[in-house]
Amino acid sequence: PSNVRSRGQETILQSGLIISGGEPNQIEVLRELEPIVADQLNRHNFMRRPWTPRDYMPIDQQTGRILHRVEDPDQAPLLSPEAQAAIIVNLLTEDNLPAYHRTIANNFGLDGPWGEWTNQWTAEEDSHAYAIRAFLDLTEAVDPAQNEEMRMEQMKRGYNVEKDPLHTLAYVTFQELATRVAHRQTGIATNNEIADAMLQRIAKDENLHMLFYRELAKSALDIAPNQMMQAIRDEVIAFEMPGANIKGFRVKALQIANADIYDLQRHLDEVVMAVLQQWKIFERDDFTGYGARARDELAEFLVKL
């Protein structure tokens, strides 16, 4: 194929992933992972507790009155500027779910256990944006018209990345954990019991999603250690959240970081290192050649980070 070139016993894909002679290709890795996907899906369903967005609506269940609505122009805003920036970024990130579904489906397929997981993951994620948007619209913590305008603009921007399956598996592990941390810290920053409970519930979903991908990536490391190590290095070094293309993202990111909701130190300690330690990246002895080089390059990057 035109996107492949050879170097001795190695094949280099356009993505930069190197496959040495005798190593499984990515389709073979995905096939070997299928029974593990089924096991992890069963584990996920056993651990997850069903919920509905209505459980966290800011509505008095007895009177139907909307709680915490800012009705007086002289009334203090419901959310601080930093909490508002964080919850907007979280919501707009969740909004692009159709694009995420396409990316996951293109990499893992929609047949068998992979397809069952992808569809269920999409259904669970759909609740997150709905719950957050309902809270903001009902309380008018963010102007509803402005909120809808931001949603339309962000979804028209879309989200499109070119990753192969192993890079995707590495990325979603870090991304799901980063999302869990962001939702949890945002909930605390809202200083609002309903928003905090809602975002804590969403964070629990994101944590289960992370565990699913983390265990699959761990198995992929056993099946194709050098290829997976290279993918992990690439995704840690080039990592960005899927909401990084939000209009005004840099300004909001600075607000969020300055409020200690999510900053580079938290990303390093609670996301990157937490996952790498679970995978025992710096304790494994099965990396050779380009895989060993990739681990060394990752270690150098972490020092700079």
Explain what the structure shows:
With 305 residues, the chain is mostly helical. It has helices spanning 26-47, 81-95, 97-108, 112-139, 144-157, 165-190, 193-223, 225-237, 249-258, 264-279, 289-304, and strands at residues 4-7, 10-13, 18-20. The protein contains eleven helices and three strands. The protein has a three-stranded antiparallel sheet. A hairpin with a 2-residue loop joins strand 1 (4-7) and strand 2 (10-13).
**SSE topology string:** EEEHHHHHHHHHHH
User: Quaternary status of these chains?
Assistant: single chain
Strand content: under 5%
Largest sheet: 3 strands, antiparallel
For the CA atoms, what is the radius of gyration? Answer: 21 Å
What's the overall average pLDDT, rounded? 91
Distance between the termini: 37 Å
State the helix count.
Answer: 11
- List low-pLDDT spans: 1-20
Task: Name the strands of the widest sheet in spatial order.
Answer: 1-2-3
What structural class do the secondary elements suggest? mainly alpha
Name the shape in a single word. globular
Helix content: 55-70%
Number of strands: 3
